[in-house]
Amino acid sequence: MTFKPWTYRVALALGLALSVSACAPVLVGGAMGGGVLVVTDRRTSGSQLEDESIELKGNARMRDEFGDRAHINVNSYNRQVLLTGQVKNEQDRTYAMQLAQRLDNVKTVINELEIGLPTSLATRSKDLLVSTKVRATFVDSKDLFANAFSVTTENGVVYL
């Protein structure tokens, strides 16, 4: 049996990661293409795929339409879209909602876009930390199913 050179690197990385117990679930989950999340999520795999598609297409469309003049996040859970971020005026806020409503498979749109300047990188980093802490709290809880929630934080506001 012959191995390709990249096979050795993958095997070495896998061996090193598995030797550090905290990295094993992350690596195995990532190596399975997100399969672990699919199994533990209450939504069907089809619903998860639809939500992922809505998010990818929605974020791309917002980037194409608004560029750097706005900061818009598109999150989807059970085909319900949450728009968060900042736009310059009410017209952009309305237009972003219309774009989201036109995405395939979208059931409803919740528009939480703020009118104002885009948040700074420091604010976005703090938001990411808050979201991570909220998710960790759900994982630690025995009474809650962590994957039953989508957690988004924008400008200090947590959306579940």
Explain what the structure shows:
The chain has 160 residues and is of the alpha+beta class. The protein has 6 helices and 5 strands; from the N terminus they run H-H-H-H-E-E-H-E-H-E-E. A 3-stranded mixed β-sheet has the order 1-2-3. Strands 4-5 form a two-stranded antiparallel ribbon. Helix 4 packs antiparallel against helix 5 (90-101). The chain is globular.
Show the helix and strand layout:
Layout: H1 5-19, H2 23-31, H3 35-40, H4 45-66, E1 71-77, E2 80-87, H5 90-101, E3 108-115, H6 121-140, E4 152-154, E5 157-159
Parallel strand pairs: 2-3
Antiparallel strand pairs: 1-2, 4-5
What's a quick, concise take on this entry?
With 160 residues, this protein is an alpha+beta fold. Helix content is 52%, strand content 18%.
Number of helices: 6
Structural class computed from helices and strand pairing: alpha+beta
Shape, principal axes of CA atoms: globular
Report, as a whole number of angstroms, the end-to-end distance: 51 Å
Average pLDDT reading = 79
What are the secondary-structure elements, in order, as H or E? HHHHEEHEHEE
Strand order of the largest sheet: 1-2-3
Q: Nearest-angstrom radius of gyration?
A: 19 Å
Q: Major sheet, described briefly? A: 3 strands, mixed
The counted number of beta strands is: 5
Assembly classification: single chain
Strand % is 15-25%
In percent, how helical is the residue content?
40-55%
Q: pLDDT under 50 segments (min length 5)?
A: 1-38
